[in-house]
Structures are given as C-alpha cells and as structure tokens.
Amino acid sequence: MKERILNLLKNIHEAKEVIEINDLLGLKTSDELRELQEALNSLVDEYLVFYTKKGKYILLDNCPGIKIGRLSVNKKGFGFVILDREDDLYVAQKNMNDAVDGDIVLVEVFPSGVRKEARVIRIIKRELQNLVGEVQFDDNGRAFIELDDDKRNLVIELTPESIKDCVEGHKVLVKVVKEVNKHKYIADVVKIIGHKNDPGTDILTIAYRHGIIEDFGEDVERELLSIPNEVAEKDLEGRRDLTDEVIFTIDGDDTKDIDDAISIKKLDNGNFELGVHIADVSNYVKENSALGDAAYDRGTSSYLADTVIPMLPHKLSNGICSLNEGVIRLSMSCVMEINYKGQVVDYDIFPSYIKSRKKMTYKKVNDVIVRGIVAPDYEPFAQDLILMNELHHILRKEKNSRGYINFDLDEAKIIQDENGKAIDVVKRIREEGEMLIEDFMIAANETVATHIFNMQLPFIYRIHDVPKQEKVDDFMTLVKILGYKLKGNINELTPRSMQNILDQLKDKKEFEILSSLLLRSMRKAEYSKENIGHFGLASKSYTHFTSPIRRFPDLVVHRLLKKYLIEQDMSMTTIQTLENNLVDIAQHSSEREVAAVDAERDVLDMKMAEYMEDHIGEEYDGIITTITNFGFFVELPNLVEGLVHVQTLKGDYFTYVPDLLSMIGKSTKKTYRIGDKVKVRCIGASKETSMVDFELVKVDEKDGNKKQES
User: Fold this and answer.
1) Does residue 467 surpass a pLDDT of 60?
2) Which pLDDT score, from 0 to 100, does residue 114 have?
3) Which element (helix H / strand E) includes 206?
C-alpha cells in the first residue's frame, strides 16, 4: 500500500484528503480505507508524507519550501536543521518556535541575504536521550534536575525512588519515564556521575550528554580476565618476525595508547622503504564478543582535555595492544617502496610482530629534525629520523602537486592543574614531526585502500565528497564583500582549485577566519562502503587503517585484511554478509565520530570559559570572527572566543546588515566586519554556560589612553 501511495503522490503537487487519495487509488471497501489510513500515518511518521493543518496529505519531496530534519542549536543562540541529503538550514533564535536542541522539526525555508534560512513550523519528535543535569530540591522536597544543556528549556522532575543516593549538587544521567506536557517530564536517575565540585565531573557530564560512557560493564570486565598481559607464543605463528628491525614510535608526551610504529631504509636503487606497523587489535577484540560489541558501540576513543574515555579498556589500549617500548607486540605491517617523486611503486601488507626500540616524543624528534639538537638516547636513531624527514618532504610535495588541501588551522590546548581546573589556554604546537607521522599514515591508508579497491571486495572507506557549488558560492560572496578578487576558475570544484583559493588568501588579514569558513563550506568526511574518494586529500582511495586502538573502522579494516589476504575468504556468503553489515558499521561509526567531536568542542568551550573566569577585567587584542544580529564574536590570540553584545556598543544604534555581513551604526556609519582587529575587555565568563563576554575598548590614537568604545 505504501508504494502505491508514494507512486500516486509523486505526480500530485497539491495536498489531498484521505478520501480523495482513496478514490484516486480506486479503493472500494472500508477495510481498504482503513489500510490506506494506517499506511498514510506510517508514511507521515517516516517523514515521507506531510500532513497539513487542514488535514490533507502531500509528498514531502513535492514541497520545496518545507523540510524535515534534526535541529542542532548553537550555544550562540542560533541553530541549524540537519537534513539527510541536502545542506543544513540556518535557523535564527527568533525562529525556533519553542523547539530545543535535538528535536525533529518541520521547517519552512525562505531566502535571507546570502543564504537560505528556515523557521520552525512544528516539532515532530523530541529526542530525550542522554539527559544530564544537576540535582536540585524545592521547598517541598521534590527533586528536579537543571539540565546542563541550556539549549533544552525543559522541566525534569525526578522520581522519589530513584534519588535515594542523591544530594543537591550531584550531576546525574536520567531516563524519561513520563511526559507531563511538551516542556515538563518525569524521569528516573540511572547514573550518579559525581558532585559538581569533584575534579573531573565537569568533563564526564559533557561526555555522558553525548552518549560517551566510561564504564564498560560486567560482561567486558569478565572477558578481560582471559586477555593476556604478554603476547602468547602461539600468536606469533604465521607472522613475519620484525623484532630485529629498527622500529620505533613517535607520539605526544602523554600518549599511552600507541597504535603505530615506523621504520625506514634507503634501498640500493635510491628508493625509500617505509614501514608502517599498526597494532593488531583484531587478534584480541573478536566479532560477536563483549569487547567487540563495546568497541562498536563507542566507535571511537574520546579525548576531552586531559581526560581520555577509550574505545577499549586500558588493559588493551595501554597494555597488550599498545606498541610499547621494548616488548613484543602483534602488528599488521604495510611496507612500501616509495620513489623520489613520492609514488608508492611496490608494497606488501602482512601480519607481523615487532619490538619497538624507542618510545619517541614529537618534542624531541622536532629537536632532531628541526633544530639539530640530538638527545643522547636519540643518537642511535638520528640518521633514521633525518631520512624520514627527507621522505616526509617528498610525500608532502607529491600531495600538494595533486591538490591536497592544507587548511593548517590552529588548535587550542587546555592546561589544567592537579584539580582539573583550567589554568591556561595555549595553541597546540605542530612542527615537522607531527606532519611527518601524518604523511606516513596517509601513505599507508591510501595503499591499503587502493589494494582492496582493486580487488573489488567489500570494504570500509574514509570518504570526503565534493563540496556543493552553492556553499562555495556563498563563501566567494563573503570574499567579495571583504573586497578581494580571486584569480582562476573558481567554479571548478577540484582540490587544486580549493587550494588555489587558500593560496591567494594567505596574505590577507582575515586568512585564519576565511580558511576556517572555507573548511566549513566543505562536506564532512565520513565512513562509507562506497568509494568516492577523499576530496580534501585529493585521494582516489582512502581508508582508516592506522588507529585500531581508538577507531572502530580501523579495527574493521584489519579484520577485512585478515579475511581477504590471510584466510583467503572471498566466498559469496562472506561478501553478501559484508555488503549488508558494512553499511551499518560505516553509518554508526560516522555518528559516533560526530558525537566525540561535539563533546571535544563542548569541553573546550567550557574549559575556556572556566579559564576566563579568573581574567575578568583584563584587556586583549582580538579579531572579529562572526557577526550576528545580537552582536559579534571576537577571537583572542590563544583562540578563546567571546561575544561583544550589540547592547554594549555605545555612541550609536548598531544593526546587523546580512548582505554586507557587517554591524553598522545608524548615524555614524561606524562598521564592524569579519576580520577587523579590535581591543576588548573581558566583562564576564561562565563555566556553567560556556560563554565569555567582552566589551570593546577604544584606544585614543593621540595619547594611547583607553576607554570603553563609544
């Protein structure tokens, strides 16, 4: 019945009542009418058919101005409706219509300035998963939680039987058991995360809010008892012994979950032999096991400031799977012969076991290859590092020549004290050593992906689709508004053309902002069974093979390599099973990656605000990054961002002009726009809301005296 309805409505561009649809389908009996009504209700629930206020039905695809999607609200007040097959739609705060973050909403699309906007017409479904908040009691002894997510304006009352161990100030995870009305619910406490004043509770509450749980559960703990602390002799069988090779690891100072090790040689023909040796997690984390299911559920490790919530328990991630110095570990090796042009001319992918000679750090490796400073314990490896750096530059040149897009955006790092309080915010240092490892891992990932793609077998790829022309056009409109004219065929959507845009903007004062905005105009990279290539890397075939300790897709890739290359299992039964399973694995892994990235961003914002709480009244130079109808955001050199509210702008009445992406004074015509350098004073910061507030400080050019902007 559903197919008949959809086929009928495809050619009808006006809404019809159920009885009209009944007649058009030629249905005769009351049973058929009842079946029609049930099918229509189901199609409405599936968001394929729209049910109007007048009680009529129309195919949603035939309503270009009506869309259904998930509302994602930004802490800055506005939001976006996330659509499955189309670009996200901007929703201003005034157009939310009581919808909250996470709601499935019906929206009306309308043009506004250089972009499309939407207004919420109806809340279709409210998702109430992962609700986290602070326990509070009223004068009558009833318990409520104040949600941490202030984007959800909901009242949550807690059941008396679930709060027996709770005190005021506890952060808890709750499960809704009853809806009182659209904005009030009854819920059970399912987990006490900790007291709000306890170190680490602030980060864990954000993790729980994104469905990232630190407990693995009893089944996993029980299964861990059978995991050895050392590699068993029987597990070495059928593997290539690489323990005599000079192999070492390079990671951050505090890294404990070491996925990858590297080796290098210069061959007699002048080519390089690069070995990338990856922890063989698949030997211990089997399919259809508690550990395997937990890894799938989590999808990825989450790195939240200095807190790590691993995909695998520490016994695996820091122990038997980690390529620690001086111990035998199981690995999957990809050894590549690379010529002086940066091309992989030969390779071998095989199971192995290694013994890392040295746990190196980026800091000391950079000392060797950037500054020529060699620590005594690095002397035996200095020549290998210099050779690796030579190969890294060759690989980087090859990537750049094919159009690799290097956004090179700064990242912030939170420094915390022993109690978990943010005491500094600094830019992450990224030098040759970091880029060297990146290039080596990309080479291995491409080699593995290309090998399986050429075998035409089911696989999981890391893909990055071509950006939509409309998004790039919007970005180019912004560039034009800022007064810049770019050369070349901008309408040619290739990696090389995108890199050409960045190259032409490199010397502009707004480069950091424009680079970030161009990145946002691109589609998100994701996992897929279908190989469409990776636009940002200008790669025809790409996968994630190099981090199976912290990413589930990498673990799946290892399983597939073993299945195809070692077990030689390429039966039709296996292929048909994988064709179905890999679609779900790719989608779920992409979703969990987004959750981890969102949690990382929320922790960063919260910790930045916590840091600024101790710096209220201090003045900083900054740059305007975003302009809205309620003010503009200013970023400081350490990447902390704060709002200059329009109400704090003195001396004129300022309004937002979308077509110019500017805030302009009505009388003075004083203009603030993206990229302008300003001096600001911090006038407020709140760890609870993750918000920082600034006001402008005017500098008198004659005597250098400062005062509030007027």
Assistant:
1) yes
2) 57
3) helix 201-209
The predicted pLDDT at position 642 comes to: 96
Residue where the block lists tokens 């703990």? 221
Q: What distance in Å separates the CA atoms of residue 354 and residue 248, rounded to the nearest whole number? A: 9
Give how far the C-alpha of residue 172 lies from the chain's centroid of Cα atoms, to the nearest Å: 25
Note whether 82 and 72 are within 8 A (CB). yes
**Residue 636 near residue 644, CB atoms below 8 Å:** no
Strands (E), 148-301: 155-158, 170-181, 184-195, 240-241, 249-251, 260-266, 272-279
Q: Give this prediction's pTM.
A: 0.85
Higher pLDDT, 710 or 260: 260
Q: Tokens 């890894």: give the residue.
A: 295
**Rounded to the nearest 5°, which phi and psi values hold at 491?**
-75, -10
Cα 667 from Cα 579, distance rounded (Å): 65
Beta-carbon contacts of residue 563 (< 8 Å; ≥ 6 apart)? 569, 574
Tell me how far apart the alpha carbons of residues 44 and 55 are, in angstroms, rounded to a whole number: 12
Mean pLDDT of 122-132: 84
AA identity, residue 412: A
Q: Which of 275, 271, 443 is nearest to 354 (CA)?
A: 275
Q: What percent of the chain has pLDDT over 70?
A: 97
Number of residues that this document lists for the chain: 710
How far apart (Å, rounded) are the C-alpha atoms in residues 90 and 114?
11
Alpha-carbon span 367 to 391, nearest angstrom: 18
Give CA–CA dist 134/421, Å, rounded.
19
Distances (CA, A) of 134 to 139, 150, 173: 17, 12, 9
Q: Could you give the CA distance from residue 544 to residue 553 in angstroms, rounded to a whole number?
A: 7
Q: State whether residue 455 is helix, strand or coil.
A: helix
CA dist., res. 423 & res. 425, Å (int): 7
Helix (H, G, I), strand (E, B) or coil at 435: helix
- With a CB cutoff of 8 Å and minimum separation 6, the contacts of 206 are 148, 304, 599, 602, 603, 606
Cα–Cα dist 691/93, whole Å:
17
Q: HEC states along 371-426?
A: CCCCCHHHHHHHHHHHHHHHHHHHHHHHHHHHCCCCCCCCCEEEEECCCCCEEEEE
Cβ burial, residue 214 (10 Å; 0-12/13-18/19+):
middle
Report the alpha-carbon distance of residue 453 to residue 606 in Å, rounded: 43
369 or 108, which is more confident?
369
pLDDT at 603: 96
DSSP secondary structure code for residue 11 in this structure:
T
Cα separation, 297 vs 130, whole angstroms: 15
Classify 137 as helix, strand or coil.
Answer: strand
Cα 698 to the center of its chain, rounded Å: 38
* C-alpha of 599 from chain center: 9
